[in-house]
Structures are given as structure tokens and as C-alpha cells.
């Protein structure tokens, strides 16, 4: 009779990327190895510019032109060209600000939080999501900037010593926003750039023209991939992840404070901070989903942006969408439970008042549509994933619209009640912000590796020192290991036999034993 | 590398609690202490109502830990986690104490007049309470309580049963079933813990409201669970009487420590957000709750929470070393378990008004024997049930398909 320790030591570690129950499939499919990952990702940049890219870029530039026109007209004339009025002093500009900041949350969640949670599937999409975050934050910062009206006095939002001793109001969450969003933007750029350095070096070494070599070379900071470089890199990355994690919570919490510190029914409610954070992650993931679906199709990266990534993102969307639904329900319940007539009025008015159409768009897009992802079939259908993700972002835009406008348009003084409609300049600025976003995204995918090449290599089976045979590299050349994996639909209860492998490093499940047998020598 | 030979899996009997373990005595001792302490507390404070409030505090405390255990188990399956398999049975047993809490709810039912008299017997002129009578009435309260216990007991026993059955037959389908169940379980858990917290604690002061309340109780519950979970892991892996035979390592404890640290911050985030938004808007119908809970020497308890529930553990548990060292982690865990109790005590006890107190009675912080006795009593019964479950099957889910991953788990 063996001791319990011996018995347990006979239970072997499954090989990386392999999950006995299915569900944690390999992260990179289609027999990717170190060389092919580099050439696949770098190829996106090195190949000739496609017509599709030019079309997207031109459309984005056109929209960016609309943005420039809208902003110029606004700055020349003042914010009166917008639809805002009294009491609806916060119109589309604030809605758009919160919308874009929210989208910007997925990048840091994916790069920092999922990193700390050892969610290796993040590795395929993190670079892309971080870039998206930076561009979304740029779009977000635009709106409060132009909303101040006299844009040439914008530096007044910063506490700059001056001879008149005039300071911004430190007690206002709007000022905290200035700090929170700029810290968030800075940290996101740092995180993104630190991650890029090894890949920039790769691009430098592969560059065919002198200009490209110099451009990548300058930003690669002399990276040579030495052990010492990697050690510093990993420490920096972990530290940045730790520092960025609280930012995921703090930024949108402070954005929620903009509303929740007030006394306005519908704005003032204690659940706002976590509710806004959940909503931000929700919309950010939906945006990543849309962009990843386009990128994997346009650049033929289906083996790197796998269905596994899309499936996991769909799960996060359903989870966070349900959290948002919980918050909607809790707000409604407390509006009743509080017994406060103003609270009840605000919420009944939201659902059945003049903006009921917006409220129900919000509920159907945010709460109902992500519930489709409970079904595996729908989670694995690209069209459904794409459309629902668009719905989610429509819904999240409307959420901010509903919060901002419905609470303001019925204030405590019925004489000032009004209906708010945007003008063409509101619409122009919002539509134009997609031009800014699109232009930046296009330039990013054209000139920078849209996938973290070095990091991605660490999650393929060949990178695991304990992989098959202890030197897993030949595993990568095996014929399509993925197809051999058992999935949840054929349960194998035959666990009676344990393949001990060598030194307990073998693989427990019979299927792995079988797979190994093909390599036995 | 030929020469692969087969080896039999350990049977549940190989990894059960050894006869020499002190845990074998806990069911009897815990039950005796529990019954004696609760009995003594009831005898002392039944008529004044002190027992009712002290008991509710103790009950919500230990219940929160059991609920935290349930949530942990659910999340492990929802996230398809591998690292935690070795220690998951401990959480499964904590969660499976849930039927005990259904029974222990009886003293609360018997004391409803003390605890919930504001809405059970509302002032006839109170328009607000008349407005919410559709929710706060005895029948609906009882129906909801029954629903919570059905949900929690059902979920806890489902996961416990599937997992222990897998010990015997090794069927991978148990894992698939638990995984499939975990997703709806998150939703059921979220709704039930929210409304239970509203019904049993918030409704004591039925005029007050906060949309954050459910999340607040949840945050404390998960923190309390992780502190106890980590402490139990340290206790059960003591050299010489290691129930896990060296398989549960510093790596596992480190991860539990990281979760503990994370939920210290999460609790603070939730508690701060709730307090801050109410403070900033300064609406009388909301601030009145904090006015009562910070009146007199209760304010000092509030400061203890800021320092002891956040600043101290935040700094203490931040370093990797503190989480990986058995002694320092255990110290932190014990402290947090105490702070979690202070948190619930501060939330519940200021609402206690002794039976027959004068109209101008001012609540103040004064520890009474009932408070300690109920805490020890409910805790004794909790540990008795936990140890009873611990003896009944293997200490680890020995046939879990992801056990191999957990056995070789390392933090990077």
C-alpha cells in the first residue's frame, strides 16, 4: 500500500493548453511555432498595403474631417450650437465622454487584471485591446475639452500656480476626472509601450528599409533580448500590471462620481461606482470583440485570434452585462423601496416617460441581447458575436444618454422641463470621433505588431519546459495536437489507469497517453 | 521514454481524516460549546432584545463565511480553475454547512418582534412604511427566507454531492455538470445574498436605503471566507499533522493570500463608495443611518474599521513574503476575521434599542456577554458541522480531472 503522497504524485500534470474536460483549449491553433508566429504577425505590416485597408483608412479620415469641422464650428461659435439647454446642460458631449472612457476599460482589464489572474488567453488580444484603449481615451478626452467652450483656457483645469490664486475646485469630481483619466491614459501608454519593446526590436531586425530600421530601432531602445533585458522587462510588466489594476476600478468610479455625488434622482445612488465599472468592461469587451472579428478576418489571423478568445470574451460580456442588469434592477427596486417619491418618479419617467424609447433600447441591448451568449452555438457564431457586440455598444451609449438626459430633463422645477434633441453639430462630433478612433486603429495595425509576438510564444505548447518529453519543441511539430484532444462531449470516465510518464511529468488522461504513444521511442 | 506503467488512483479512504487528527473531536466539542453558549446568551438577553441583536450579528457573520465558501466553489467551476482543486474540498465543506443556517434561523424568527418591529408594527402615520408594506410584510419575508435557504442549500449540496461522488467513480461528467451549473448559480447567488442582506439587516432600520447594500455584505462575506479559508489551510498543513501530505504548498496559500488582499481592497472600495456618496450628497434620509452608526462612541468603532479593516491589512498583506509565510498570513487572517466581525457588529448593533428603553435612548458601544457568547456559540456549531463533513469523505477531490494541475501549481 503506497502512502498518500506517493499516490498523489502519480497524478500527472496535463500538458499545457490541454484541459481534460475541454473548454481550455490550446490558445494558438493550427500548428503555430515560434517562427510562424513572428512571420504571421510581422507579415501584416510587411505585406503590401491592401485595398481594404485604404478604404477603411479613407473612410476614417473622412469622418475625422467631419470631426475637425464640427469642432472648428463649435469653437468658433460656442457651445450654443449644440442641443444643450437649461436644465440639460450635459448633453451628448458627456454621453460621448463616458461612452469612450468606458470602451477604454477593456484594454487595461485584459492587460493588467487578466494578467494577474493568469488568464493566458489574454495574450493573443492584449496588444490590440491596449491600443484600442489608448485611442478610446483620446476620443474621450476630446469631449470634455471641447465642452468647456473656451478651449484656449483649458489649462485652467490643472492646478497651475497663478498670480490671482485661482484654483480649480478640488472638491469637484470633474477635477478628479482630469487627474484620473490623464493618469489612466499615461499608464495605458506606458504599459502598451513596455510590452511593445521586444516586438519593436523584432520589427527592427526584420526591417528591409533604412527608415523602417531606424524608426523601429529608436523605439526599441536597444533591445537585444538578453537574459537581463527579459528580467527587467518581466519585473516592469508585473509592476505596471499591479499599478494598472486599481486604475481599472478607479477611473470609471470617478466618472460615476460625476453623477452620483449630486442630489439628482437617478444620478445619486450608491451602487454607481461598481455599476459603472462593470458597464465599462462590458462595452470595452464588446468593442474588442468587434475589432478582433474584423482583424482576424482581414489579416487571416484566425489561428491566433481563435474562437476560444471570442468565446471567452462572449462570457465576459454576458457576465458584465448581467451585472449591469443587476444594477438596473437594484436601482428600480430601491426607487420603490426607498419610498422617496422623487426617486420613484425619476425611474418611472425613465421607463415610461418621453425618453422611454431610449430606456428600452438600453435594456434590450445591454441586458437581454448578451443573454444569447448562454448558448454555445451562438457563442461560436461569428455573425451573432459581431451583431450582439454592436448592440452592446449601442446599448451602452444609450445607457449614458438615459442617465444624463432623463434625470436632467425633469428637474425639481417643472417650469423648466424640456425635451432635449441634439443638433447636427452634436452628431457631427460624435460620428467624427469614430473617425479619430478608426484612423488611429488603421495606422496602428499598419505600422505596429497588432499581436504581442514575444508574449504569444510563451503560451504555445512548444514553450513549456515541462511539455511532452520535457523538451516540448518537437511537440509543436507534431501533427495537429489539437484534433486529438477529447472534448466535453465525449466524457471518458476511464480514469482507472494513470500514465505516470517520467518523474511524474507525463499526462494523466488516456487520450494524452495515446497521443504520447505516437511519439514513444 | 517508454516504460510507462499504470498506477491505481488513490481511493477516498487513502485521503480521509486520520483517526489521530484533532478535527475528530470538533463535532462533539463544537456542538456542546455552541448549544451552551447560545443557551446562556438567550437566557441572559432574551427579554431585553440584546440576545436577538447579538445573535443576528453572529448569525450574519458565520453565514457570510458559509456563503463565501459557496461563492468560491461556484467561481472555481465557472472559471475552470485548476490551481485550487487540492483545497477546494475545504470550501465545499464550508459551503455545505448551509442546512445548519436554515435551522439556526429559527431564533431570528422567534425574535422578529425585537429585530423588525419597525416594519412589523409600523406607526399608523408612517407613509413611507405604508408604501413599502408590499415588500416588508411578515408573509413575504418568510417566503423569501425560505427561497434563500432553498437556493443556498440546494447549490451547496449539489456541488458537494457531485464532487464527493466523483471521488468514488472518477466520472468526468460530474465536473461538466458542476461547470454547467456554476453559471446560473452565480446569478442565483447574487440575487439571494443581496435580498437576504436587505431583509435581515437593512430592514431593521426600514427607512434607510442604499443600492450598494447587497454588494457591501457580499464583499465582507468573501473577505471573511478567504481569511478563514487561508487560516484553515495553514492549520491543516501544519508540519507533523499535515492532512494534505505535503501536497498543498506555499503556492496555494500564496494565491489564497492574494485573494484575501484583493478583497480587503474590494471591501474598502465598496464601503468607501457607499459612505462617500451619501456623505457628499448629504441627503438627510440617507445620512441619518450614518448619524446613528457614528453616534457617541460608535464613531470610534468606525475609525477602527478604517484603520483595521483597510489600512493595516492593506499594508500588512501587500508584500509577497507576508502572504507566503505561514505565521504572518495566519496573523493577518485572524485579524481580518476579527475585523469582519467588527464590521457586522458596527452595522447591526447600533440599531439595538433595549426593550422598554426610554424614548430618548441613545445607542452606544458597550460589549455585552451575549455578543461574545453568540459569536462563539454559532461559531461552535459552524465548526462542528464543518468537522462533521470533513470526516465523511476525502480531504481533497481525489479524482478531479484537474487535480494534476493543482498538484504542480506554481506562481510565476
Descriptive account of the structure:
The complex is a heterodimer of chains A (521) and B (412). Chain A is 64% helix and 0% strand. Chain A is an all-alpha fold. Chain A has one domain. The longest helix of chain A is centred in the middle third of the chain and has 34 residues, at 173-206. Chain A starts with a helix and ends with a helix. The model of chain A is unreliable at 468-521 (pLDDT under 50). Chain B has one domain (15-401). Mean pLDDT of chain B is 92; it is low at 1-7. Chain B is an all-alpha fold and 412 residues long. Chain B has helices at 26-45, 50-78, 85-95, 98-104, 106-110, 112-115, 117-120, 127-131, 138-169, 173-200, 213-236, 250-281, 284-293, 298-318, 320-324, 326-348, 369-392, 403-407. Chains A and B meet through helix 1, helix 9, helix 10 and helix 11 of A and helix 8, helix 10, helix 11, helix 12 and helix 18 of B.
> In angstroms, what separates the terminal alpha carbons of chain B?
28 Å
Strand content of chain A: under 5%
The helix/strand class of chain B is: mainly alpha
Q: What is the helix content of chain A?
A: 55-70%
Individual helix count of chain A: 20
Low-confidence stretches of chain A: 468-521
- Largest protein interface? A-B, 67 and 68 residues
Key attributes of the depicted protein:
heterodimer, A: 521 residues, mainly alpha, 20 helices, 64% helix, globular, disordered C terminus, B: 412 residues, 0% strand, disordered N terminus
